[in-house]
Amino acid sequence: MGPYYRSTSQGMGSFIDSFYQYPILMLLLVVGAIGVGYYAIRKNKKGQ
Predict the structure, then answer these.
(1) d(Cα 25, Cα 18) in Å, to the nearest integer?
(2) Of residues 35 and 7, which shows the higher confidence score?
(3) pTM over 0.70
(4) Per-residue model confidence (pLDDT) at position 37
(5) Which of these, 17, 27, 33, 5, lies nearest to 41 by C-alpha position?
(6) What CA–CA distance (Å, rounded) separates 7 from 40?
(7) CA-based, 20 to 30 A from 15: which of 21, 22, 23, 39?
(8) CB-CB contact of 17 with 5 (8 Å)
(9) Please, what is the average pLDDT of the chain?
(10) Residue 34 has what pLDDT?
(11) Residue 19 near residue 7, CB atoms below 8 Å
(12) How far is CA 26 from CA 11, 12, 18, 23, 43, in A?
């Protein structure tokens, strides 16, 4: 277990650990964040 477990709760630590076990989750999270950002920018420009 890495040092990130020191200042986090056990539930948060297991959540972080799931990203180490399944790297595809991190990829999906990044793609989702980019998609939400793109949607918000597009919607904001259309309203102006």
Answers:
(1) 8
(2) 35
(3) no
(4) 93
(5) 33
(6) 33
(7) 39
(8) no
(9) 80
(10) 97
(11) no
(12) 18, 15, 9, 5, 26
